[in-house]
Amino acid sequence: MAQLSYVSGSVGLITLQNPPVNVLSAATRQGIMESMKKALNDPKVKSVVICGQNGVFCAGADIKEFGPNISGPSIVPLIYDIEVANKPVVAAIEGSALGGGLELALTCHYRIAHSKTRLGLPEVTLGLLPGAGGTQLLPRLIGIPASLELITTGRHITAAEALQLGLVDHVTQSDTVDSAVKFALSVEGEPLDSRRISKRPCPHLPDLDAVFEAVMQKVRQKFYGAIAPIACVQAVRAAATLPFSEGMKREQQLMSTLFTSGQARALQYSFFAQRAVGRWSMPSGASWNTSKARPVHRAAVLGLGTMGRGITVALAQAGVSVVAVEIQEKQLNEAREHVYATLERGAQQSGVSPSCANITYSHDIQAVADVDLVIEAVLEDLSLKEKVFQQLSAICKPGTLLCSNTSSLDLNCLASQTKNPELVVGMHFFAPAHVMKLLEVVYGSKSSPEAVATAMQLGKKMGKISVAVGNCRGFVGNRMLKPYIEQSYFLLEEGATPELVDKALEEFGFPMGVFRMSDLSGLDVGWRVRKEDGLAEPVGTSGQITRLRGGRRYSPLGDILCEHGRFGQKTGLGWYQYGRPGGRVAKSDPWVFNLLEEYRARLGLTARPIDQQEVLERCLYSLINEGLCILEEGFASSPEDIDVIYVFGYGWPKHRGGPMFYASMVGLATVLERLDHYYRSNPDVPSLKPCKLLRQLVASGSPPVHKWKEITKKIQNRL
Ligand SMILES: CC/C=C\C/C=C/C(=O)SCCNC(=O)CCNC(=O)[C@H](O)C(C)(C)COP(=O)(O)OP(=O)(O)OC[C@H]1O[C@@H](n2cnc3c(N)ncnc32)[C@H](O)[C@@H]1OP(=O)(O)O
């Protein structure tokens, strides 16, 4: 796991050998310790170089080993031995130096990095802090403000930035190990005291208290409810105020609290879940490792409204050449300007040149004739989309993949309009499409595995976390949103206010509660769907209000708002008031309170006190129940798929893992008991009826999320 070899006569070369990313597993730690000892005891060795095999230095501690029974030598004394070594130790950094990997490099006396290396201390994203001395060493090397920023965000930086910050000593474009060996030879025999970071004082910072106070406030706001960023700030403060050994003790104290926290478990689960969704499968048995993606060099986007523009930007930024089509001349020109400005802004932020040259614009659908893939993003109207798919099928060259960005329509209907339904898949982006990480890749009953593989690969190229899901109403994300929103309306009927519901959800960790979120997305969208479904009926001021539709409880409150032209932020009025159309700041609106009072009075409903616990249970457990139904029916292949969708597309707080993980943390038996309880008092609300899978999981002893598959497989109704 770590190999010592001898090069250039006097250099001991220690190579970490733990593919794919040389994590510091117990065996690797043992290997480094033994190799170091051997090299230091060997009189022939005058200097040491540490590198990683296959072009990767080290991605840090092995997250899979985290838990109560971690074995092998611990990291802290191991890397301490390196710092106190009496021979110069040089880190030859390439690929990645992250977490414990960067901490390992920090205890070396010199750091040589390849120009393409990424460095960082991302422990905070795993619910931890850099607990192998990182919080004490980094501030001594690069100062407190830069350290606070890197440690609290976990951001990866380039070698160039690392050089600028003083984190590395030299950046090379050529062979990293060769450069490091030459460098090691050049410093053999030189004094090392000044190279030991732990011996340095932390650079002085005037207004220390004010700086830490400001950072703490920022962190509490930005990472609401997350404990690791706070602990990171506290640990860096220890570096600024305590001697090194005391600071190390503080770091360990804070780390041990984080290490066993539920948040760390959730975030580490999420790390692996993000990777697991790439190993997709379909009910037919086809999967990522049996299906080959086609190359997509040229793609078309059809319809340049908000979604189409965002998708165009995302494709161009991924280096795909784009044909952007919009039949309305005015909209086309606006889109061209908008896309250009967005790409320019993105280029300024990232420091790379904009990709405008990759885009051609047309108002003629014939322009898509020779592309490899089309993403349709026209209005969410079935008959319009069906017509578009007929046209695409006739125009495009054979084999072109036809994708729809629909968020709600039946993909099979669109596929049935084409000559090759196997080439049709959904690519459901989230607004703004060039920013949001999530992509639902939707397979219909005839989609070929190759088509799914191609959409998944394109999503990856666009920097998305892509999740393959089946074609049910609303797919996974929006389908689960439905009972969540429904419960929030029922809570209003029973006595809650939008403020009360939103507060509970925001304190849980959502960036926006359900009502603020609905105002942002536009209340008219759901209204149109409800009207199409025959649910929303005009109420007016004196009309009869019915709260039962098709035998199910129904709340027309959302429809009533829309009848008053209150569509949310875009009209300046929704569940809140925004001052003006397009306003962003939500203020309570007495009009809404009056409406609720009148509504309850008309229906003879008595408002009762509703607490945050009830809001969370009803909104979240009904959403979780729907997620379990989706798993049961096979429209998602694993709980990880659902959790990734919710964290990256719907603002589910990252440190709570996702709805499925959260349910397992709360206890499936508790979720079942509470759903049973609410269903008993609301037998006309089917989404509160616990699904079969939930009962089965509880009957099987509530296994951890990664074991659910064994049970879902048994009861899945295949698509
Ligand atoms: C006791 C604690 C003491 C000290 C504190 C130290 C704490 C730490 O060091 S925590 C770990 C900090 N490091 C990270 O957070 C880095 C995580 N890894 C990455 O960001 C990326 O994997 C990468 C940039 C290193 C490489 O990216 P890419 O090339 O896209 O590959 P993958 O992400 O798909 O990874 C490949 C493969 O490796 C697994 N893996 C990556 N890092 C780790 C890790 N630190 N521990 C365990 N496994 C790791 C990853 O899961 C992939 O495998 P699977 O596809 O099987 O999941």
From TrEMBL:
PROSITE patterns named among the record's database cross-references: 3HCDH, ENOYL_COA_HYDRATASE
Keyword set includes Lyase: yes
Any GO CC annotation of this UniProt entry: peroxisome
Residue ranges of every copy of the 3-hydroxyacyl-CoA dehydrogenase C-terminal domain listed in the record: 474-578, 615-705
Gene3D superfamilies the UniProt entry points to: 1.10.1040.50, 2-enoyl-CoA Hydratase, Chain A, domain 1, NAD(P)-binding Rossmann-like Domain
Protein's cellular compartments: Peroxisome
Coiled coil feature spans: none
Catalytic activity line of the entry: (3E,5Z)-tetradecadienoyl-CoA = (2E,5Z)-tetradecadienoyl-CoA; (3S)-hydroxyhexadecanedioyl-CoA + NAD(+) = 3-oxohexadecanedioyl-CoA + NADH + H(+); (3Z)-hexenoyl-CoA = (2E)-hexenoyl-CoA; (3E)-hexenoyl-CoA = (2E)-hexenoyl-CoA
Protein origin, superkingdom: Eukaryota
InterPro entries listed in its UniProt record: 3-OHacyl-CoA_DH_CS (IPR006180), 3-OHacyl-CoA_DH_NAD-bd (IPR006176), 3HC_DH_C (IPR006108), 6-PGluconate_DH-like_C_sf (IPR008927), ClpP/crotonase-like_dom_sf (IPR029045), Enoyl-CoA_hyd/isom_CS (IPR018376), Enoyl-CoA_hydra/iso (IPR001753), NAD(P)-bd_dom_sf (IPR036291)
Keyword annotations of the record: Fatty acid metabolism, Isomerase, Lipid metabolism, Lyase, Multifunctional enzyme, NAD, Oxidoreductase, Peroxisome
Gene Ontology terms for molecular function: (3S)-3-hydroxyacyl-CoA dehydrogenase (NAD+) activity; delta(3)-delta(2)-enoyl-CoA isomerase activity; enoyl-CoA hydratase activity; NAD+ binding
One GO term (biological process): fatty acid beta-oxidation
Domain 3-hydroxyacyl-CoA dehydrogenase NAD binding: start-end pairs: 299-471
Enzyme Commission number, as recorded: 1.1.1.35, 4.2.1.17, 5.3.3.8
Pathway where this protein functions: Lipid metabolism; fatty acid beta-oxidation
Assembly mode: Monomer.
Protein family: In the N-terminal section; belongs to the enoyl-CoA hydratase/isomerase family.
Protein name (Swiss-Prot/TrEMBL): Peroxisomal bifunctional enzyme
Origin species: Cynoglossus semilaevis (Tongue sole)
Lineage: Eukaryota, Metazoa, Chordata, Craniata, Vertebrata
